[in-house]
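Follow-up to my earlier ticket, as requested here are the two runs.
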Amino acid sequence: MKNICLIEDEESIIDLIKLNLELEGYTVRSFNHGRKAKEALKEIIEYDLIILDVMLPEYSGFDLCKDIRALSEVPILFLSAKGIASDRIHGLKLGANDYLAKPFDLEELILRIQNLIVSKPEPSSKSIIIGDVRVNFSSFEATDEQSKTIHVFSKREIELLELFNENKGKVVSRDDILDKLWGKDNFPTSRTIDNYILTFRKIFEQNPKEPTYFHSIRGVGYRFTL
């Protein structure tokens, strides 16, 4: 069963879309307020599709689309009374997958939803959430709950985070890290890795001295847990 998030402020449209999508077998959650949707962004990006109005109270659909795209590639379908060409182009430039103007044909809406969900890319490890921070492996950025960049990682830091992510819950030795990230022809010291871990703890841990995610295993290496 696919889950759809509907962000729309007109209750009659919410009721109409929700009823018909549920008859098609979808699970639908709705938000009728832009600011409330922004506050629930971490939950929203886990849906299979987002249907998004442009004109929302306090926080526009265009701004929400920008925030969503900073965190996820979830399909976005704009559904808006702002249907002139410049609005459609602006929405698509922000990263939306489709744009349908109001008033709309219900059958066309359902077909567009089906097409977007069918073409949704398989989940990948492009990003990961550690505590209150999301790491985007493509942009090398760490962002907080307000989608503000709080750190830009080096290529080596991202490679190390990806290695830990691939081995969640397992102990990764310092020797393995050095071999996989630096190779046999380079000779950094194990202290180099320790410095990276200190950086990660400052970014992700509430109390770096009592880590929740990046654990030191004395005499061996590190274990990353979520």
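Run two:
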Amino acid sequence: MDSVSVNKFRDNLNIHVEQVVTKHMPLKVTRRTGEDFVVLSADDWEREQETLYVLQNTDLMKKIAVSVATHQKNKGYKPTAGELDEITGI
């Protein structure tokens, strides 16, 4: 994660915000008091929240683990040729 002082962040606010939004990379802003903060795009914040929800939901994590194990044993769902054509738009 890139880091910038609060003064440089303030002086170049538009540039830093544009980079955070377009590159989807958070920016750590440091302060003299040592109480730093992070700038993150709204889309990235929502994705992080969704990920945290999934990771904290034990029932959902168990279902995902079972699905992964089934898939690794080649016993997962295999679409038909027609379904594949519909999915890929061919």
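The only thing I checked on run two: The mean pLDDT is 92. Let me know what else you need.
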